Amino acid sequence: MVDRRRCLFLVPAMLLASGCATAEPTPIFAAASSDPPAGSGPRMEAAAPSGTPFVAADGRDLKACSDGECEVLVRTGDQIPNDGGAGPLSVAVQAGKVGLAPASGGMGGAVSGPAGMVHQINRQVIAVVAVQGGEGIIRLSKR
Q1: d(CA 63, CA 78)
Q2: Less CB within 10 Å around the terminal CB: N or C of the chain?
Q3: Residues 6 or more apart from 42 whose CB is under 8 A from it?
Q4: Sign of CA dihedral 5, 11, 16, 18
């Protein structure tokens, strides 16, 4: 026979413990799909055809993003200062996509996508303008 008092204690204790587990940080490219759900927002036009110079308006000057508005050339490992709403961002460029995640290492707000991907975090609009090899061009703007 089952001791009901023990079950009344063990079941809630197990449920509580399962909700307290800590999760490993989500890798940038696993945090978001490159294919946003239908109606999730605008997509930009694809990058300029090959042969066109691969340049960003602010070049590699990542500090230009400090105010939350810039267009920069990024590479894996870059840290982008940003006070535009999404906070400072860590960059990864892989397999034709640019991934951006909070530089603090938290899981919230990580996005990744190919050229044309547009995503909004708080008041910050993040767009992947182009990706070529191990480099990408991203545009940050405020909404």
Answers
A1: 11
A2: N
A3: 118
A4: positive
Residue 103, Cα to own-chain centre: how many angstroms?
A: 10
Residue 55 predicted with pLDDT over 70: yes
What is the 3 state secondary structure string of 42-81? CCCCCCCCCCCCCCCCCCCCHHHHHHCCEEEEEECCCEEC
CB-count burial class (<10 Å; 0-12, 13-18, 19+) for 103: middle
CA dihedral 123, 129, 130, 131 (to 10 degrees): 0
β-bridge pairing 89-94 and 97-102: antiparallel
Q: Is the model's pLDDT at 132 over the cut of 90?
A: yes
